[in-house]
Structures are given as C-alpha cells and as structure tokens.
C-alpha cells in the first residue's frame, strides 16, 4: 500500500481538497449560525433550541466510522461523491422543515448535513495521506486554509439569503447549502486516487487490532486532545448566538461573531503547520488549550459585543492549534494499513463528544447564570489534557 502520492498528484489533490473544504466547509457555519435560532422558532420548548445543532454534531459522529468504511471499500473519490449527495439531500430536507414549520423535519435535515460533515472532516486526513514525514502537518494545515474561505462563505450566505424567500425566512439559506454541496461534489469528482491505494483499501483487517491501538497511551493522549479541543469549542460556540441575542445583541451581530470565530478557526492554518514543525505537535496543541481557557476568561469578564466577539476569536485560534496539533499527533499512532480505522475511531470519539457538548450547551444556556457556568466549566476540562501534554513534552525534552 502506498503511503504517499507522487509529488504532482499530491499537490493536485491537496488543491482540490482545499477548494472542497472552502465550498463544502461553509455548511457547518450555516447550521451553527441558524440551527439554534431556527430551533428556537420551531421547537416546542426553548431548552430544545440547540437540538438541531447537536443533531448535526451527532450526525458527524455517527457518520465517521461508516464514512471510513465506505472510503476504504471504494476509495476516497467515490466516498466523497456519496457524502456530497447526502449533503445535497440534507440541505433540501432542512429547508423543507423550515418552510413547513416542522421541527422534526428540520432536525432530520441537520442530521443528514452532519453525515455529510463526516466526509468533510476527513479531508485533512486525505491530505496527510498524500505526503509523508514532516510534510503531513503542513498538508493538514494547507487544506484547513480552505476553511478560511468557508468562514466567509457560510455566514455571508446566511446574511444574503435569510429573507430571500418572502414570509419564509432561512429557507433559502439551506437551499444554498445544497447548492454548495453540489459544487463540492463536482470538485471531489476530480480527485486522482492512486490505484495501489484503491486496491489496498479493500483490506480491512490489516495491522493491529483497533482495541489494542485505542489502549495505547499515545492514542489516548492524541484523541483526548482532539476531543477536549473540539468539544469545548462546540460547547461555547453553540450557545454563543443564543447568549448574545438574550443579552440584547442582534441576530446579524451574532452571525458576524460566528464569522469572526470561523475565520479565527482557519486563518492560523497559514502558519500552524510551520509552528508544529518548529515547536512540536504537543506544544502547539497545549497552546491551543491555553487560548481556549483565555476565551472563557474573557467571556466571564463582561457581556458586551466586544467581549463576545473577542472570546469567539480566541476560541477559534485555540481550536485551530489544539485540533491541528491533535490531528498531527494521531498520524503518529498508526501505520499505513491501520490509518482508516484509526482515523475513523478518532473522529467518532471527537464528534461524539462534540454532540454531547452541544446538547449540554443547549440545556445550560437557558438556565439562570447558565452562560457563566458554561465558561467556568472550561477550566477543569482544559486541565484534564493540558497537564499530561505538558508532562509528556517535558519528559521528551529531558530524554533528548
């Protein structure tokens, strides 16, 4: 089995994956910006307002292992085409739910968009698989740059299309999501997957058993770092639009806040890979966790627009460092023949925790002092992973 594509094929695939991330990656900001607001309009109980966003994350979690299996069977190109078809259907179903004022149909739509998101999330691994050695972190970072464009496209789609259909707010936004998924399908259909990779993809039993890999300290720390980084980001981000509106800020201000947040999530990708090469995966991941804690500190210091936006920006940068660092750590935990199942397990754990975090966010943000409590909970969660990361880094340095 090949562990890397030829240089020309790798560059081409990374360009396609970056563009696909830019277009397809606009789906999460659309769901995050509108999911809680539409949920509040349609749900029978305000406590269920964030359920659509939580179900989106649950869809990502539930889709990771099947997506990994499908791509191992038929290759990444056909797998990504199938995922884009799910995204097209998901956007149309969500739009139907909004048009019919039916909470259940809208939730089904967000689940389907989440299943589509499971394929989008693996773009970074596809990039890493195209190269070898120290280039993996740089390839991951390069594809994540596509998210910078997605950070602009998604929220702007919401702003431009929210009232495009008279008397049916937000319907056009989810139809637009389907159009973006169609464009993603056209892009990923141009991927060139080496034949050796396709042939080897049928072998699902190679390497160590997944249970053995999952018990290894290296995997536990890498996956734990990804879980905490992403879950805390989703925990705070999901509730922020609702908290902002409850504090008297407008939906437009909340949407722009999400846009700044997503820009901060992907903007550092221009240099995150180089920082990892210079300082190490664990150091950059630990820095990301510290920034997430700083986000909570700012959120606790006030309820003004600048407090919310500054917290969202720090949260985005912290996620970038933490998640890309964790992803690079995961690539050290498996051989070429083990990568599909290990990557699938990692994403299942990450997005399962993200779904749980967003469910919890919806329940807490509507309680008295819920916003403050959520931010206080960030600090112990960060320490759970930050301490072993720092000790592991110090231990490695002392051995060197």
Automatic annotation (TrEMBL):
Location of the Major facilitator superfamily (MFS) profile domain: 218-400
PROSITE patterns: MFS
Entry keywords, A to Z: Membrane, Transmembrane, Transmembrane helix
UniProt keyword Transmembrane helix, yes or no: yes
Species, as recorded: Martelella lutilitoris
InterPro entries named in the record: MFS (IPR011701), MFS_dom (IPR020846), MFS_trans_sf (IPR036259)
Matches recorded under SUPFAM superfamilies: MFS general substrate transporter
Official protein name in the record: MFS transporter
Pfam families cross-referenced by the UniProt entry: MFS_1
Origin superkingdom: Bacteria
GO molecular function: transmembrane transporter activity
TM region positions: 21-42, 54-71, 78-97, 103-122, 143-162, 168-188, 219-246, 258-277, 284-303, 309-333, 345-365, 377-395
């Amino acid at each position: 089995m090949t562990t890397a594509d030829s240089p020309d094929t790798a560059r081409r695939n990374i360009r396609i994956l970056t563009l696909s991330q830019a277009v397809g990656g606009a789906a999460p900001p659309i769901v995050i910006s509108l999911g809680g607001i539409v949920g509040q309009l349609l749900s029978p109980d305000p406590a269920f307002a964030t359920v659509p966003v939580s179900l989106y994350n649950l869809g990502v979690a539930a889709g990771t292992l099947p997506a990994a299996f499908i791509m191992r069977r038929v290759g990444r190109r056909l797998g990504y085409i199938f995922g884009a078809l799910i995204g097209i259907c998901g956007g149309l179903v969500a739009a139907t739910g909004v048009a019919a004022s039916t909470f259940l149909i809208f939730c089904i739509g967000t689940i389907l968009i989440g299943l589509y998101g499971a394929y989008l999330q693996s773009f970074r691994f596809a990039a890493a698989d195209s190269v070898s050695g120290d280039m993996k972190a740089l390839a991951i970072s390069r594809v994540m740059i596509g998210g910078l464009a997605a950070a602009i496209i998604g929220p702007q789609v919401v702003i431009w299309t929210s009232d495009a259909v008279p008397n049916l707010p937000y319907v056009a936004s989810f139809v637009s999501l389907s159009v973006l998924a169609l464009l993603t399908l056209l892009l990923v259909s141009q991927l060139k997957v080496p034949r050796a990779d396709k042939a080897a993809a049928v072998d699902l039993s190679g390497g160590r058993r997944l249970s053995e890999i999952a018990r290894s300290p290296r995997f536990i720390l890498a996956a734990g770092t990804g879980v905490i980084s992403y879950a805390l980001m989703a925990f705070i981000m999901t509730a922020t639009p609702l908290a902002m509106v409850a504090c008297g800020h407008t939906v437009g201000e909340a949407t722009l806040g999400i846009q700044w947040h997503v820009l901060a999530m992907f903007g550092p990708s221009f240099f995150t890979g180089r920082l990892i090469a210079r300082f190490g995966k664990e150091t950059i991941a630990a820095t990301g966790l510290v920034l997430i804690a700083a986000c909570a500190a700012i959120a606790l210091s006030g309820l003004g627009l600048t407090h919310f936006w500054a917290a969202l920006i720090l949260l985005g940068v912290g996620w970038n460092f933490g998640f890309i660092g964790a992803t690079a750590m995961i690539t050290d935990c498996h051989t070429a023949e083990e990568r599909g199942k290990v990557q699938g397990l990692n994403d299942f754990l990450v997005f399962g925790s993200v779904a749980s975090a967003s469910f919890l966010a919806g329940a807490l943000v509507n309680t008295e002092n819920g916003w403050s409590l959520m931010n206080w909970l960030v600090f112990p969660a960060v320490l759970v992973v930050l301490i072993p990361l720092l000790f592991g880094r110090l231990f490695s340095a002392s051995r060197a």
